[in-house]
Every structure is written in C-alpha cells, then in structure tokens.
Design brief:
With about 650 residues, the protein is an alpha+beta fold. The chain has four domains: about 1-195, no CATH class; about 195-305, Cathepsin B, Chain A (Alpha-Beta Complex), CATH 3.90.70.10; about 310-465, Jelly Rolls, CATH 2.60.120; about 470-640, Orthogonal Bundle (Recoverin, domain 1). The chain is built from 19 helices and 25 strands. The chain has a six-stranded antiparallel sheet with strand order 7-12-8-9-10-11. Strands 17-16-19-14-21 form a five-stranded antiparallel sheet, with no helix packed on it. The protein has a four-stranded antiparallel sheet with strand order 13-20-15-18. The radius of gyration is 27 Å and the shape is globular.
Length: about 650
Amino acid sequence: SNTQVCGGTTAPLIRSLDWAQVKTLLFPGIQLCMFSSHHACQFHHDWQFQPKMCFFVSVLLSAEQEICENPQFIIGGANRTDICQGDLGDCWLLAAIACLTMNEQLLYRVIPPDQSFTENYAGIFHFQFWRYGEWVDVIVDDRVPTYNNRLVFTHSGKKNEFWSALLEKAYAKLHGSYEALKGGNALEAMEDFTGGVTELFEIREAPKELFTIMKKALERGSLMGCAIDGSQSKTSTGLVQGHAYSITGVEEVRGIVCAEMVAVKKEDQKVSFLLKLSTRMNFEGFQNTFTKLEICNLTPDTLQDDTPANWIVTVNEGRWVKGSSAGGCRNFPETFWTNPQYRIQLLEEDDDLEDGQHGCTLVIALMQKGRRQERHLGATLHAIGFFVYEVPKEMRGSNKPLPKDFFVYNSSVARSKSYVNLREVTERVRLKPGEYVIVPSTFEPHKECEFLLRIFTEKRIQPVEQETEEEKKFRAIFQQIAGDDMEICASELRTVLSNVMAKRENTDIKTEGFSLESCRSMIALMDTDGSGNLNLQEFKHLWRKIKEWRSIFMRFDVDKSGTMKSFEMRNAVENSGFQLNNELYNIIAMRYADAHMELDFDSYILCLVRLEGMFRAFRAFDKDGDGVIKLNVLEWLQLTLYA
C-alpha cells in the first residue's frame, strides 16, 4: 500500500513506508512513553489536514482526551450502532459504513485493528481505502471537530468511542476536506471501501438471467442489497418502503433470503434502525416486491482468499485532453475517433450459462478521477459513457487506433445505457469470443479529466498491446528515474525530459534544457491528484503537450533562429488555442522575453504551461459559461500560488 502522511519535510521521505515504519520514524522512542499520563508524550498533529470550520461558530479541533476521560477506539467490536450522523450531509457515506460493519473481513481491511488509545498510542490512526486501482493508507491525528465539547460530525452512540469519527476524518482527508463529503452516493463509498465495482439494476428492467447473476455474485462474496421505492410505508409482506435490505442467500429452488441493511437517520442526534428482519420468498415474489438491486462485485485483491469464482480484472488508466483525446461521444463524428481506445481479445466462453446462451460476460466500469477532490476548484462530474466495437478481421492484432471512417460506417455491439454525470458508469454485456475495442468518452468534446477503465470477466482476456515504440522507451526511462513508487518530482522530471530531449534531433531549437521552475509549473499543470508529483500517465500527457507546442514553435520560428521573437510569439500563442489582447501580449514579452526580445524554448514552454493552467482553472469556476467568475482571496491565492 501507499501511505499518505502529513508532516512538512518528513512526508516525501516516508511516502512509501508502511504504517509501522511511519510510527517508528515519526515517534522515535515512543515505546518508552508511560501512557498513564498522555501529557508526558509529544503526540502528532496533522498540520497538512486542518479542516476549515468557517461554517460553524466556535468549532474547535479537540483531541479525544479533551472530550472524555477514557477514550477508546473500538468498544466491543465495530457495529452499526456506532454510526450517528452529525451536522454534515454525508449520510451516503454513513450508509456505506453501516453496510461495511456487516462483513468483518472487509471492515478490518479498511479499519486495521492494530491501533488504540492505550497500547503504543502515538496520537495517530490509519485507515485503508481503495484509490483508483491501489490501496492507500491515510494517516490522521486524533483531533476531531467539536462544539461545546461534543462532536459535530459523525460520532458513536457511546461517548468515549471514536472509530467512526476518525474513519470519517480520514475519508475527508482523502478527498481534501469535510466539505467535499457533502452529497454523494453510497455506492461510491462502498467502492472506496472494497475496491469492487457496483452494478445497479432496476429490477423490472433487469435481464432475464437476473437469478444467475445474483447466484454467481454471492458465490464470489459480493455484497448485495435491494430496496423498495417509496417513503416509509409498509407493504403487505411487512417490508418497509424506502429502506434497504441486504441479500444473504440465493438457493437453487429459486428462493431468496432477505435481511435488513441498516438505514442510518438523524433523529435528535440518535440513530434509528428497523428491527432485525429475515424474510424468505420465491424469486418471482422478490421481483414483484423490490424495485432496485445493488451488487458490489469484489475483486481478488479485496477478498484475499481462495474463493474459486473471483472475477478477473483488467485495469486501464487514461485521460481525456482538450484538443487531443477529448473527442466527445458518437454525436461528434469529427472528433469521436480521437478518444482513447482499448482493445481486448475474448478467448473463452463463460461456464454455467443458461440453456441456449453463449458468449463471454463482461462488466465494464468507467470511473472519472479526482472530481470530488477538486470540487473546491469548481470541478463537477462530467457526463461519461463508452461504446464497444468488434474489430474487423483485417484490423485485428494491431496496436494502431481505429480511424475516423471506421466509426462513421460501423455500429457498436454494446454501449453504456446513457451518458450520465456519475463518478462511475457500469454496464454488464455479453459478447461472443473475438477482438473488441472499447472507446470511453465524455458526452461533449474538450472536457478534460483522468479516468480509470476496469473490465471484469469470468475468464482471462488478452489485452492488445497499446504502447508505441516511443512510449516503451519513455516507460523505461521513467522507471529508471522514478523508482518503485513510479512517481517523479520536479528535479526528477527535469532529468527525464533531458534524457527524452537528448534522444530527439533538436538542432533547430536553441535550448539548454528545462529549468527547475518550468518543471514545477509542468507538474502543477498535470498533477490532477494533488500529490506534487507526476505518475507515468500524467507524464505521457505532458509529453504530448510538449510535442504539440514544439511543432508550433518550429512552425512560427519564421527566421529559423532557434528562438521565438516576441512578435512571432503572438501567432504561436493563438495557434495553441489562446485568445489574448494586446495588453496580455505586452505582459508576455516583459515576463518571458530576454533583453533581445526573444524567448528560448524553455521560456516559450513555461509561458504556454502557465496559460494552459490559468485557462483551465477559469473554465472550472465559470460554470454558467458567461466569462465571469467570483473568487474570494483564499481561492484566488490557491489558484495562483501553485502554478
């Protein structure tokens, strides 16, 4: 696992260490502390994550020792009665936590049990979340928001129990703030707790093989819930509308066992639950009674056991880049073909198919990354979806993207039902063995975002090699410099770019390489996850930008001097997609040109990087598209300082 750690200059040193190493490094000699007096120790304070409390009056960050005399992390096991909603609108998160408590194996993956307020207490706690393809450790201190000595957000029914409050704090830190947790979907949190992929079925529109889908899901250890649309009234069977139930069994006699899934409510600071309910009904009765079915399919790395029927998961990371690979949906045929394309080969049909059925089952899940974390910058969820095409025989086995004409004259064999502004869009499809290409996209062109494309299959599939020879060379250079964590800082980026540029003929460009300041600005532009570093995917997109801008540089260096005169810079900026006025061109000349009013390649790239970043930030805040935004001073500083 990766570990997210606060703590000034210590953080880069320990970002790849595990929990035990972090405690040892941050707190040398902690074993010598006598915990009968907490004041004898100097505990850790998380200065990196200091929640903003401007929307509450007199709210303090208080350590548990200041709230009660005998704080405990978990009392008698973590269960649903420990989850009381506070003044934050994150009931979606609490519903997912309540569901998590019903599976001890999954629960203790998220909440490692090796921590307490007594044994080896160090003022910190850690929690594990699935984050876009990998498990990360998030470390927080034990200070939680209080008002009049009471917790204002999630809290336990027991005043001296704090696991639920600290879990909420860690999840808020993962997304950047408590405020980022306002409003959401329980399925989103459930995926972050399990690494699984969730399918949502409207039961009256579900496929005819729904029983088989449910049976196989339970065999794989998937979490499964169902609900009845409505508001609090009872049905003739005694079930309550508007409440969720967990499905605990599906039998071959086509019966189904239903047990309550906890519904968490805020009622005078208390938690309201249904009584324990177990109902058995035949499958037809189930279909007629319930309206929604939710399945959280777990991945092999979540279960960590010998379950024989696990899904096989293929993970692809990508990014839609304006003017390059953000082509929009099929409604935009001129640009749709420029979207990222992912080829797969389906080799074997599924086992245990219904009578007369053939093919390979795929669950395709497309997730957009980082939008909740960037909400404070004005980011919203894009409408996303995907299409699946069968690759003709004459085009199979190639890593070349399919051309524009192919998509104009060929229909898709499968697709997401619609383009929706959810974090993840999921679709279950069945295809015959063969080679296919999956094309994920936003609904409209020019919408930038990173994404994760996961493909779940019953049998192993064969991905078709996507990398070009140039990209393979980049990967080798990147791996050599980045090391095991596969991330590079500004100085390492400078080394990578120097190596890459040295392998190209740059005789027409005068440059002494990129400065450290330019590399810092490049990271600020491409660093979508806020880590202060670049991963391989982010570096690839940066390199595409540099190649595009290099081509423009050479085209408008009219006198072939190897530098860009300030007058030539006007055409270069316009062809890069930026519309500026004379005053701004004057500022560019003063800021980036030398004494001879020329820009070398480094200054030229630095200028375009900063223009790109400023335009991108403005578009994120300009939600109504009127060309006017309103920022307070802190938002303005946040935008301009990290550029």
